[in-house]
Amino acid sequence: MAKTFRPKARRPRGFEDRSASVIRAERALVNAASQVYERWGFEPLETPAFEYADALGKFLPDEDRPNEGVFALQDDDEQWMALRYDLTAPLARFAAENFQDLVKPFRRYQFGEVWRNEKPGPGRFRQFVQCDADSVGAAGPAADAEMIAMACEVMRAAGLKDGEFVIRINDRRLLDGVLESLGSADETRRMRVLRAIDKLDRLGLEGVELLLGKGRKDESGDFTEGAGLDADGVRTVLGFLDAAQAKGARADIAARLADSAKGAGVAGAEALSEIDALLTALGVSEAEAVFDASVVRGLGYYTGPVFETELLVTPAYPDGSPMQFGSVASGGRYDDLVARFTGQAVPATGFSFGVSRFAAALSALGRLDAADAAPLVVVIAADKAQMAGYFAMAAELRAAGLRAEAFVGSGNMGKQLKYADRRGAAFAVIEGEAERERGEVQIKDLKLGAQLAEAISDRDEWKEQKQQFAVPRSQLVQAIMERLNRV
User: Fold this and answer.
1) Which pLDDT score, from 0 to 100, does residue 84 have?
2) What is the pLDDT of residues 303-355, one digit of tens each?
3) 79 φ, ψ (degrees, to nearest 5)
4) Which residues of this UniProt protein bind L-histidine (predicted)?
């Protein structure tokens, strides 16, 4: 006989299932950021998951495979559509499509799933959530400084404290000036140089040096072609990086960069000087935001100031080993993206963070307490013939703002109480035949019971505790609310 085909239960590589606690943590983070964006005058926007492939452009970090970096399909009109790989390219399409009707600057924020058809790895997923804020039609360093100041507020709203994060700021035109002086300013080479530098924190100077030259083979044997700079060019770029990471006050660094800037770099140094003055006026301290000319960002559409947010506090795994999160948020100016559609210059700047990565870091630091679910109450179905009454109890509890459910599975009272325990319920409500005849319900305080189980070993002392008590049926909601308010 032919065997029945049974598919293997497995996830595609690079995609993950998210549990309730992870989802709540991510929602808490998005809500905190959204409240900041609203206070700063930004409006929500939602764009579709699919865009036409030509509208997305070729701005993926994986420059060597621009057409393979997205998940694409052909529509019935033979046009290629692709799942969005970020929220910025769809914003540019929206702004261009609705340009005449938008109040400019157009200030929007958005959060949602994005997809990248890239090689998955530890902490590198093909599907993840981003949360962005952008100003379209905003020219000049003032809009960039505002984004950086708002990013600081998002970090604080997320639960980070003084000294636990720093925003590193640069202007990509500084390096463009260096490349112009080397005669290496063609776009392909420029992007390979930028992407090599963007890997400095992960690969170190030695790895960057290889990527600036002929290329680098990673541990898996995959080879990444380099920028092809000669030995003098590599030394010049590495020298720039060494000087770029010098410490000091923002104003001092901006002045030094202005003295050494060449070509396009002059405008970059001037922008940093103005950003410093504006950040100071906004109350953003030297500890919160610093200048670091080694920050370049890997995406190809940035045209001016760029910035990254780095955690200065390192959470640890249970074995004590440090968790590495790298940059948890970033942003920058992209003045040419809308112009791809309109043919006219439309300045824009924005800020973005990966929700999953940032939420994981905050959870590891214990900074997402607000993500805890509201207390759950489980109404035990002691008598299946009385389900209508149990549903009525759960409805009353929900009407009072509590999470509540009547047990609809199978099993005796012991199994149902075990279910409530495993769900992490705060209370179980029990109404058997005896309680119903007396017009009462039993309330079992499961959280208190768990605490007593750990703290009490004497049986008589255990009996004295009130982890289970009876109340009139009419006082069910009031009794549970009083218990919760007592905590």
Assistant:
1) 93
2) 999 999 999 988 777 777 787 777 889 999 999 889 889 888 899 999 999 99
3) -95, 140
4) 86-88, 116, 130, 134, 297, 301-302
- Name the β-bridge partners of 124: 121
> Could you tell me if 420 and 378 are in contact, meaning their C-beta atoms sit under 8 angstroms apart?
yes
357 is in an annotated binding site: no
Q: Name residue, tokens 């058997």.
A: 432
**Which of 45, 238, 33 is closest to 150 using CA atoms?**
33
Half-sphere exposure of 357 (CA within 13 A, CB side): 21
Is 116 annotated for ligand binding?
yes
More confident residue, 187 or 178: 178
Question: Which residues, in sequence order, are bridge partners of residue 378?
Answer: 405, 428
Please report the domains of the chain, with CATH numbers, ordered by start residue: 20-370 (3.30.930.10), 374-481 (3.40.50.800)
Q: Which of 191, 227, 222 is nearest to 209 (CA)?
A: 227
SS (H, E, C) 54-97: HHHCCCCCCCCCCCCCCCEEECCCCCEEEECCCCHHHHHHHHHH
297 is in an annotated binding site: yes
Q: Is 441 helix (H, G, I), strand (E, B) or coil?
A: strand
203 assigned to a ligand binding site:
no
292: which 2 tokens? 């670091």
Which has more pLDDT, 381 or 73?
381
* 398 assigned ligand-binding residue: no
Q: Judge whether 86 is annotated as a binding position.
A: yes
**Ligand-binding site membership of 132 (annotated):** no
The SS3 of residue 229 is coil
Provide the 3-class DSSP secondary structure of residue 203: helix
